[in-house]
């Protein structure tokens, strides 16, 4: 018989995170004996084409991390039209009004919650270092064009504010693109404008954003003892910082598990389509703060 | 021994046998004239000589040695310089840089701009042209650009120099300079080839001449001076031509076109003139006299500062060429390449571009059949040499391109005023004769025809009346009876200059 | 004098050959299609062909007007932003008023205004087309973000959504719309004064002007049309994805321009063939479709796409070899 | 006889006016700068100016060669990918061999090969420059992803890193490098046969060819140079961000081309001024810098950037008004 095909559609195929997710989904396919079809869907148009393409290949269903959560209705309609099982991963799909779509099972994180974890990580380390909260500048490397980026960074801001960081200390550094150089330039200007702060914490939507802030700080003589940055993702960018001989201001990154997301969602859709076993409506996985100290151990735990 | 020898040269383009076994030779210290109707293959031969085209057959010998040029650079290195029919300059570079393009002097690896300017200034002075070597070509008039091209060729210090219709955009003054230059080069023992459609020029300059027709050599006359004019024309055109101007006197209608106080930034004062239906009005003047400027104002091609144009008593909108055309006024521009042709479009397209608006199906759709028919009619009527109406116009010889542009305007059904700016530039005698006939036919229908020309015999030969311009002003008006070369030149030349005929 | 019989034609320009040359790209594509139909599983199935066509519906529509734009020696980088803005605006108007007509009308109007703005900047104010449309690209994208506060605007209206997925003779509406665009703009290009004048101003604007073409006006119209068609594509896209997305269609402009250039439209102006554009668009879509069917790794997709682009133009180049001299 | 005075020049090209016109953009920028220095807090501080300059270091370097490329009537979309690839490759070689020399060498070599490849495709195989460099852009980006498996490649070598942050007379090395590039390419453009011939082939390729300029060879050299300089920019960037990132510098090509066009380089070829390019680059950097200093909302930044671009070219346009006919 023809092998069963399950699709795995991700919004940013070039991002290491999704490469990892795909890798673990492949693993699942091997273990369970189905074929995985991986397609990158950078925008809504490509997403629709990919779903059509899956149907043409006679896939039974697919896992999706959509380029925008509001594409939920479109995903749902397309899946229904082609009679495909669908499950979302990472970002939960919502309808036009912003309500999660009930009949699409989801496994993932909440950008806002991950952001909060970033904030809490920063707070803990500031406390350990004995920094006074009202003397610390908070650098939010912002890319508000991307809803998940906004959710994440606002989560971090809210956590910091809740712990007593004055709202006035929060400095936005809007980056033009999501790469390190843009973050660098944006952070540079923010430091110029706010020379009054001698100590800084920084974060952004991903590790690259945090790294840009760190490099910009170094360029202005703000070193590891006066600066703390926490990224999101646990990518190679972060690991590179951890393996440097001396610690840098890149303090940590909130690691989420591409293994669980990739492996478990692929299996869930496969079993749903073949054995009729519907996945749990919502599974939220937590992030873990990874630092220089616990990185080796943590990565081993996660099977990375 | 012949310094330059063409031996059985052939060249084929898709659909065209441009050269068919052409053989002749030219000696050092000789000016060899090339004549032939438009599309006869003259320019093609020069392009082969210049390394631009590879011949499909035959040999090219320089001083007895067979040469195979694979690029223009090879030809230059072998001592061949060509002044092309289509000017080849870089508008954004300076005079000095254009002249020395490919051979700029350097010092310590850097361009020696000073030396370049000096060298070029010397050469320009030697030729007798007053031009700033540091001026950009884009700032110069066509005539000045042509002089730069000539200077470029001369500075290559070549043994063989070929001129492809160098005078077509020059007027008297530069023409004189050029003639002196050619004579000097001949006396220096160089081999010169000279293409022109102006027979007077050929008689003045050439020692011998070779005549082409349809890609074949018809004959070489070793002594130019001994060949009668009629014989040249007959060899070239393949038939006898009596009076080439073909002037017929007509009864003129009532006043039709009136230009009142046309004014622009480039004209020193407002200009006015008027003409009757059926009249052929000639405009004569030196380069830069303002004739083109005036006609462009009339046509709405340039913004006016003031003035108005009346046609049959009604004001013509100054909104632009389209408005003028709608009123029945058309202009055939002087710069064919830049302002006339749609280079990559077909001959048919170039003919139909404007007049097609009259015969649309349902007021919207083109009638392809009718357009094709019209194109074919004109190709035949004007004897346009092209493999088909679908040929891209840029692949036609210069003179044939000119005929296509003319056809574009003759095709206008509501034609009332036909303005021709240097209409016979680069056109062979036979075709000139045809164009003159057309001019007279158009006038006979009651239209106004304005002809700008820098060829004095031509304007004198075809006009009912002549307006002469100088430095942006109308310096005088001559009836056909009054008009003579002396009278016209007296009005055209700056005060005090000798007003003697040139040839 | 007689009209000359021009030397017998060399073999290579016989009408048959010319026809072959004219349609070499089409033949090439047909061949590619046949090979793929036999070798790639699921490629030649109704569902897949429909999917393929749908995937190029937006590009196809906009390529029609981009063809005119390039043919007139212009350039438009703002189409991606216009798609996004029209989609967002349509969705917002729909949300507020509930009227499909108003939503579509306002989207198209916005497109027309953006296009006309580009046209005026370029034709009358003589701003370089690259910079002018880059500026509108930025501004319109900004407006899309500002209007939507950076969030996708959901669409719930079934009537509007059906716009994107109603089928007619088994083909969804967007495909019919695209086909219609090709038809209309093909006729416009080849059988109307508008189209011919467009080619003329691309070939030589000064000559065209002197021949009576209202160059400035025509250029504004071309951009305006482009704006309207692009907005339409944006509205259809928003219907298909049931939301107006402010960051939709980034990089879209390059895809459209590539499709046109692949189809033989010259960036130097003056040259365009609607048939070529159809093929260019299909090539782009087919490559993507097949790579996904074959499960080509995302990173290698870049490589393959680049190679295919090159192969396509090189093939096309071969046939024009020898026409020009090196 | 006497020398003839050929038509006198119109008054408007007097040397003083010409000079003013030539440098109007520079004056405009100087004015803008002065206004900003007084009105925007923190703008005119050493740290900010250094930051501003750093932010345009890469664009500035590549704009130098892009200027040549555009001047010769070509086009290069592959620079962004080349930056990424050179950075990734350099970092990988450094990781494997530990030799800074080898890392830089291999990065530059890769750049040279990519550039030469573009050049050969365009000059000899006559592939349209847009398509050719779009194809290389895709392929090189693909290679960057494949080589690095999509992951950032870390750089630990202090020697290499110092490349990006050593300062000299208070200015970081990348700024000096950019200044050097402007100097070198300014001289190249204006004072070498190479530069003049580049303008010639852009202004009128046929004329250049007829004058014996080896057009094809020259074009390959231009692209090769572009590749090398771009790779250098990529290596410097990787040193600055202490890693080679495969998705660095997306959209970079458009920024560079815009800077050049802002600086008066013509897309039709034949026109280029190094000074203009410097100003173009500075305008791009300044606008971004000031918007962030003024805390302009991200969404409104799009709008402002578009408006500024337009304003800059419109201003520049005013002065050339009336120069052309019609
Ligand atoms: N590149 C080309 N491709 C196709 N046909 C060409 C090409 N160049 C020239 N021809 C054709 O070859 C023939 C000879 O052209 P050529 O330019 O040599 O004529 P010519 O004698 O110089 O005419 P004119 O006096 O009008 O300049 C013409 O029929 C022309 O259309
Ligand atoms: N593009 C231009 N820029 C500046 N001045 C110009 C331009 N074209 C023409 N002129 C000037 O305008 C005046 C009138 O030129 P015009 O071309 O009308 O003369 P003409 O009598 O037609 O001579 P020609 O034989 O050169 O066509 C001259 O002084 C000329 O130098
Ligand atoms: O785009 C992010 C990705 O980078 C990873 O962090 C998982 O969540 C997705 O939303
Ligand atoms: Mg000729
Ligand atoms: Mg004139």
Automatic annotation (TrEMBL), chain B:
Pfam families: ABC_tran. Residues 4-239, 239-496 form the ABC transporter domain. The keyword Thylakoid does not apply. Gene3D superfamilies: P-loop containing nucleotide triphosphate hydrolases (3.40.50.300). Keywords: ATP-binding, Cell inner membrane, Cell membrane, Membrane, Nucleotide-binding, Repeat, Sugar transport, Translocase, Transport. InterPro entries: AAA+_ATPase (IPR003593), ABC_carbohydrate_import_ATPase (IPR050107), ABC_transporter-like_ATP-bd (IPR003439), ABC_transporter-like_CS (IPR017871), P-loop_NTPase (IPR027417). This is L-arabinose transport system ATP-binding protein. PROSITE patterns: ABC_TRANSPORTER_1, ABC_TRANSPORTER_2. The keyword DNA-binding does not apply. GO terms for molecular function: ATP binding.
UniProtKB/TrEMBL annotation, chains C, D:
It holds the Pfam family BPD_transp_2. InterPro entries: ABC_transp_permease. The chain crosses the membrane at residues 27-44, 50-70, 77-94, 100-122, 129-148, 168-189, 220-242, 274-293. It is a multi-pass membrane protein. The keyword Membrane applies. CDD domains: TM_PBP1_transp_AraH_like (cd06579). Keywords: Cell membrane, Membrane, Transmembrane, Transmembrane helix. It is found in: Cell membrane. NCBIfam families: PRK11285.1. This is L-arabinose transport system permease protein. The lineage of its organism: Bacteria, Pseudomonadati, Pseudomonadota, Betaproteobacteria, Burkholderiales.
